[in-house]
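Fig. S4 source data, part A: sequence.
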Amino acid sequence: MGICDGRVVIVTGAGGGLGRAHALAFAAEGARVVVNDIGTSREGEGSSAGPAQSVVDEIVAAGGEAVANTDDVADWDGAEALIRTAVGAFGGLDVLVNNAGFLRDRMLISMSVDEWDAVTRVHLRGHFCPLRHAGAHWREQSKAGKAVDARIINTSSGAGLMGSVGQGNYSAAKAGIVGLTLVAAAELARYGVTANAIAPAARTRMTEVAMPDMMRKPERGFDAMAPENVSPLVVWLGSSESRDVTGRVFEVEGGIVGVADGWQHGPRVDKGERWAPGELGPVVRDLLEKAPVPTPVYGAGG
């Protein structure tokens, strides 16, 4: 018996890296899994059905249940077809893990609008479209009087929480995913749906290139950057045990699990009337003295 026995799970971008690890971990805990992957390169080029089918074959060989799906999650109709795949193959949907993405790194002053659009499309739109169609499915189920105990697990990043030099497009998209998660948690609670996000640190085809030294596999001992370290939290968030947890962002790396403390209302001063520009220098500096020091942007140096 596993903690996700019988639950139907979609994992996007599951042909490799974190997505593959999530799909295998869900299957090991008794879930029936839709393995979605369009089969693109690290930069989002090309397509292939091979990666998704390879993970399905692994799951089936281990005695689990899985089907492959190669729809583009950032395409409106493709995302709808993905949800239909789960319902058609397994009779329903309980968990949506939004994970798909790729990188096109560039410093902001060198970045093209196409590089911006491609990355924000796959990460941000690629989270919204499946979420939107899954949410509509669960709302329909709820309004029909059926019990819904559903989960949305989105994938942000430390880059989305703190920023990352050379990844303005990726950082903006991942920050947007956090905002999307908070709104989804608030809006979908009435239908029996929770929404949380993770900000993982792990070895993937994206991070191996962006941070090769940090991501290098050790010759011995605990492999802190193995993507399989992230999946237990994702599986738990997809289980019935997590039904009271929503609207949260979890940082996870190796054996570390933490709750990210996002934007909060900080120190403030109310004059009771409009400020004059010349008055605000000492006021702002006093507020900054009282506020926490921001976490440095990744890659900003010392």
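Fig. S4 source data, part B ends here. The chain has ten helices and eight strands.
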